[in-house]
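YM 10:42: Sigma-70-like protein sequence, as discussed on the call
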Amino acid sequence: MPASLLNNFELLQLLRSRSITGAEALYDQYAPILGLAIFRIVGQKELTHIILEKTICKIWDTVVLYNEQETSLLNWMLNTAKTLAKEAIALPVAAITT
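YM 10:58: structure's back
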C-alpha cells in the first residue's frame, strides 16, 4: 500500500499519462473493492482474480474515455468490473483464461 492515497484527480492524471505509478496506485487503492464486487457475481476466488486482472487492464486501456462529469470514478470502475464478471459467467472456462 502506498504511503499516502492519491485522490481521484491525481490518479486520473497518472493513469491518463500511462504512468506505472498510476497503475500501481489503481491496484493498491481499488483492487479490494473491485475484487469484492466481482466475487459477489462469480462466487469463485480463482475466477475473481482472473477477472480482476482483466478489469485493471481494461480500466488502464480505457481511462481516456472516462468522463468525470457523467459518473464518479469508483462507479465507472465498478461498472467495468461488474460487466466483465457478468460476461465471464456466461462464457466457458477456457474462454475466460485466454
